[in-house]
Amino acid sequence: MKNITAVFPGTFDPVTNGHLDIARRARDVFGRVTVLVIPNAGKNPLFTQEERVALLQEAFAEEPGITVCGAPGGLLADYVKERLPCVIVRGLRGAEDVPHEFCNAYYNATFCPQAETVFFPARPENLFLSASAVREAYSYGAGLPDCIPPAADRALRKKLAR
Ligand code: ADP
User: Fold this and answer.
1) Which of 31, 47, 119, 158 could form a disulfide with 2 if both were Cys (CB 3.0 to 4.6 A apart)?
2) Radius of gyration from C-alpha coordinates of the chain
């Protein structure tokens, strides 16, 4: 499987330890992985795309086989079509993630049938971890430094300083 490009797309607003774990495991299976920061019409991110890319790049700076990119826009399927053979990597924290993730996988397969979506189950310690819960905690002045990389902790404190 070492010649397959693995793409791990997401909002990463901001990167959490759950995202780090999925990216590393995808790299270990496929040899390398591209973590792709994509626009999501349904979300209004706290961090700009450039900031999210920079936080991911800092988190993975010392890690061979993991590349971080900002998507130029457009469909994810168009991005992966240009990089075949390719798999789309996503994480699953539990049953709540399934409808949304299967829906994405269905549409990505519709637009690019050659690219399979593969799911990695979240580690038990990350099951209740989400970027939205992290943002909410920091917005109330609480910190979760054990759940996110140090640069994300600093960036959240700066962005949400009261
Ligand atoms: P999106 O807006 O595309 O869902 P997210 O940044 O919220 O972007 O999530 C990107 C991917 O990472 C999704 O597949 C999501 O299920 C997965 N993910 C998010 N948090 C965790 C976690 N704690 N453990 C494992 N996977 C996670």
Assistant:
1) 31
2) 15
CA–centroid distance, residue 62 to ligand 1 (Å): 22
Q: Please answer whether residues 138 and 151 qualify as being in contact, where contact means their C-beta atoms are separated by less than 8 angstroms.
A: no
Q: Which residues of 131-161 are buried (b: 16+ CB within 10 A; e: fewer)?
A: beebbeebeeeeebeebbbebbbebbeeeee
Exposed (0-12), middle (13-18) or buried (19+): which is 45, by Cβ within 10 Å? middle
**Is the model's pTM score more than 0.85?**
yes
Which pair of structure tokens corresponds to residue 95? 């049953």
Ligand 1 centroid to residue 149 C-alpha, Å = 15
- In short, whether 97's Cβ falls inside 6 Å of ligand 1 is yes
Share of the chain above pLDDT 70, in %: 98
Residue of minimum CA distance from atom 2 in ligand 1: 11
Q: Give the Å distance between the CA of 18 and the centre of ligand 1.
A: 7
Written as six digits, the tokens of 111 are 């637009």
**Which residues are within 8 A (CB) of 47 and not within 5 positions of it... i.e. 6 or more apart?**
13, 14, 55, 155, 159
**Alpha carbon 3 to its chain's center:** 21
Query: Is the CB of 14 within 6 Å of ligand 1?
Result: no
Mean pLDDT, residues 88-110 taken together? 97
